[in-house]
């Protein structure tokens, strides 16, 4: 790999020359490198899983780019050498994280985080027999991390099921058993 500086001939050249040389630009620098060919090794199971996750993340990112507001949001997060699509793929690749579920009297407080933004938090209260007694969306608190849901009753022996979703539609589910 070579970094080209002050060369008039290569100033506007990009692409592959023959089957030997690739010229591209990264972060304002022109880079020349030998052309990479396809790997001759059989991919491992982990590599196949990563490829599948990336394919799904790419599809979700393309759907996100159709919404101008989400596209503008992702563009605002992009750094040097990145664009809105890169941020959308990064967001779609990972699921949000539920850090904690706690009860404060009759209120369920969920601490959730995502690398970019948590879109919504759904809370379900289930009794001891497995019947959903109530459900609804939690409201984001003033600190931007805690989500609050006011429950009418929290039955003993039941559980609280929390589902956190991010903008691309990836979600995480966690339960809290009631005693």
Order of helices and strands: EEEEHHHEEEEEEEE
| Mean pLDDT across every amino acid position | 90
Shape: elongated
Instruction: Evaluate the radius of gyration.
Output: 24 Å
Low-confidence stretches: none
What is the helix fraction of residues, given as a range?
10-25%
Tell me the span between the first and last alpha carbons: 62 Å
Number of helices: 3
User: What composes the largest sheet?
Assistant: 4 strands, antiparallel
The strand order across the widest sheet is: 1-4-3-2
Structural class: alpha+beta
Q: How many extended strands?
A: 12
| Percent in strands | 35-45%
Note the topology.
Blueprint: E1 2-4, E2 15-17, E3 21-26, E4 29-34, H1 45-65, H2 68-77, H3 84-93, E5 97-104, E6 107-113, E7 118-126, E8 132-137, E9 139-140, E10 146-150, E11 159-166, E12 171-177
Antiparallel strand pairs: 1-4, 2-3, 3-4, 5-6, 6-10, 7-8, 7-11, 9-10, 11-12
Give an overview in words:
There is one protein chain. A hairpin with a 2-residue loop joins strand 3 and strand 4. The chain has 179 residues and is α+β, with helices and mostly antiparallel strands. The N and C termini lie far apart (62 Å). The relative contact order is 0.13. It has three helices and twelve strands; from the N terminus they run E-E-E-E-H-H-H-E-E-E-E-E-E-E-E. The strands form three sheets. It has a four-stranded antiparallel β-sheet with strand order 1-4-3-2, with no helix packed on it.
